[in-house]
Amino acid sequence: MIRSITKNEGQVSVFHLRENLEAHRTKAFTKKLYELIDAGRVNLILEMSHVQNISLIGMVAISHLFNRCRQAGGALKVAHLTDTVQEAFEESNLINTIEVYPHVVDALKSLQSENLYYTARFSGSFFVEEKKSFVGWDRLPIGNCIN
Questions:
Q1: DSSP structure string for 8-42
Q2: Domains of the chain (ranges plus CATH)?
Q3: 112 pLDDT higher than 80
């Protein structure tokens, strides 16, 4: 069993990992994410703000998930790394393979096409610096969201 929360944002699933990704948790972690991919949720964001330690096998698992998402026509992005996990990503060179973002909203923006910004299935709102307020996804200015 792995402690996590999964939230769907349109065609993207955000997987909030709530514990360290040590060797003995890797199998449960991989199984849970493979279930998402097998269910057609091939655009994934792995949110890691609660992960303080990661094993080498955990890094390998993330790399395999990245490849599996790509083979299925999707993508895996990582968001909100802690300092120790950031260092592990850099030392393993995984940081040059998988896109890493400081916040989930940045990773979401990178995955969304213009059509998805207007879908009714999008939920939530995010702080827009220019407006100094929270804005729903359906009202995000497209020009400011796509890199």
A1: EETTEEEEEE-S-B-HHHHHHHHHHHHHHHHTT--
A2: 4-111 (3.30.750.24), 118-147 (no CATH)
A3: no
